[in-house]
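Box 3.1 A note on notation
Throughout this textbook, protein chains are presented in two layers. The first layer is the amino acid sequence; the second is a token string describing backbone geometry. Keep the layers aligned when reading.
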Amino acid sequence: MNKVAGTGCSGREIVYLEAKDKMVGIEQVETDSSGGWGKMLSYMVANPELLDLPVIGDARKTVINYEKLSELNPDVVFAADAQQADSIQTKTGIPAVVVYTGPVGTPEQMDTYKDSLRLMGKVLDKEKRAEELIDYINSCEEDLNKRTRDSSSEKTSAYVGGQAYRGSQGLTSTNPFYPPLDMLNVENLASSLDISDTSKAIQIDKEQLLKWDPEVIIIEESSLESVKNDINRNPEYKNLKAVKEGRVYGVLAYCLYSYNKDIMLANAYYLGTVLYPDQFKDINPEQKADEIFEKFVGSPVYQDLKATQGGFKTLNF
């Protein structure tokens, strides 16, 4: 296996599996021009040489450049779903493998993701690396749980606002299945909602948010400007307990060009330091983030992401 392409946001996992040297193309969103988010994606920031690769499609529009794919002629293409894989194989004759790059907010989704990493590892001859990554994810989950599972007297509730989905969103866009909160044994207020689709952000009513009046609000910084505009248009949001008490925290974008599992873990450790300071007093969140980025993408890129997204910080409105 010498050449590979990733569509449907799977280029990230190719890098995670240390197979970037096999990549022959990237998607439009991965570039740093024409609306691309390359400078905000950890794996592209860590491997800027990938920006020079040809563009093979646009995941946001579910568009694939079949002509370019045929020209590049990779040995295999990773695809987002069966329909995409069938289309690639039919129009180019190139074998396509369906993989999972979506959210991991439920145990079933996390299991599916780990199985997908194993499949990609097998195809790329990176089986050992796949198991190494899975073991690392497991160790972080176990560490986070161990630090917080017995802290019942300190339990708090939190709300995730500005959850991105196909672009930035306002304060009432949330995620009932936000992995960092689950890993920290924190009550996610939106988890009380009856949600059948666990794959994307949801919109709640403003009245619901005001009724919840969360103790803590977490904002994904890819949506920060949208959230600020939302609060300015709705001054009643400034009466929310979290806003008045200065417990609104900015985190890196877990959901940006699908789901960034390295950022997910980095966010969890940062939130641990602000929600459970005693249990995380040995953790410097920026240093921990760089440890995680080195493990996943090969370089400590926290400062780069801080420059483009805002980094871990308390937000004041």
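The two ends are 52 Å apart (CA to CA). Residues 75 and 288 are 37 Å apart (CA to CA).
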